[in-house]
């Protein structure tokens, strides 16, 4: 396993609780849209076993042409040890990234794509949308639906509806409106539904989609195959 040690080059405050940490790109480090990585702090591998409290599985919210590895995350006032350490890091601090992989690249199958996310989960979809805007080949249309009860919506400039680019977007702040819209979107029985959020959020969305007649293979999750099988065999 190759561990890349790199430095924070910029910290962007997206909302009062959400920050993007932009990291220098190591020379031979590459990734694609929808990628996640393991993000760790100094000392995580100092002992015989990795210190898991110093490691988190994070989505990369940028594309390689942006020349920075973006990690976008919510840090609340009361937070975990990991987030507490992260909050105190500054530009120039060194961090580690390793085990980078994409489970949800943008599928180009001449279908409509629906991006369903909760809160900061939208960061996972930012690279997919950028990739689509750069090259719309074999994607019929993209619609983004995000729920965030804080109402401090992320990336609103990028996720602005653009009918000329066949992109529509919606932000909601409550579960009722969100799931009603998911039901409306699932009228497209041929669409591809990408879902990003907590495990509970994934389970709720999968149940709604399956109840509406969407097939498991149409649902895309940021999970390894073994985890994927477990989620997509939920009994409706």
UniProtKB/TrEMBL annotation:
Coiled coil: none
The protein's Enzyme Commission number: 1.18.1.2
GO molecular function: ferredoxin-NADP+ reductase activity
Enzyme's top EC category: oxidoreductase
Segments forming domain FAD-binding FR-type: 1-107
SUPFAM superfamilies: Ferredoxin reductase-like, C-terminal NADP-linked domain (SSF52343), Riboflavin synthase domain-like (SSF63380)
Keywords, alphabetical: Oxidoreductase
Gene3D superfamilies reported for this sequence: Nucleotide-binding domain of ferredoxin-NADP reductase (FNR) module, Translation factors
Protein name: Ferredoxin--NADP+ reductase
Organism whose genome encodes this protein: Geomicrobium sediminis
């Amino acid at each position: 396993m190759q561990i890349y040690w790199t430095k924070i080059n910029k910290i962007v405050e997206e909302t009062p609780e959400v920050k993007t940490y932009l990291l220098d790109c190591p020379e031979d480090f590459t990734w694609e849209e929808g990628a996640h990585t393991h993000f760790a702090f100094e000392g995580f591998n100092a002992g015989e076993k990795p210190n898991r409290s110093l490691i988190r599985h994070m989505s990369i919210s940028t594309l390689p042409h942006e020349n920075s590895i973006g990690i976008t995350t919510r840090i609340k006032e009361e937070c975990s040890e990991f987030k507490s350490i992260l909050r105190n890091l500054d530009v120039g601090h060194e961090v580690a990234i390793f085990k980078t992989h994409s489970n949800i690249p943008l599928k180009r199958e001449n279908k409509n794509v629906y991006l369903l996310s909760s809160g900061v989960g939208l960061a996972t979809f930012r690279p997919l949308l950028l990739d689509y805007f750069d090259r719309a080949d074999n994607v019929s249309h993209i619609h983004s639906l995000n729920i965030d009860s804080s109402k401090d919506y992320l990336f609103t400039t990028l996720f602005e509806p653009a009918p000329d680019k066949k992109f529509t977007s919606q932000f909601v702040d409550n579960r009722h409106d969100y799931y009603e819209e998911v039901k409306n979107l699932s009228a497209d029985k041929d669409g591809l539904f990408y879902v990003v959020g907590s495990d509970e959020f994934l389970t709720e969305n999968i149940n709604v989609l399956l109840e509406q007649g969407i097939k498991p293979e149409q649902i895309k999750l940021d999970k390894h195959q073994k985890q994927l099988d477990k989620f997509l065999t939920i009994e409706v």
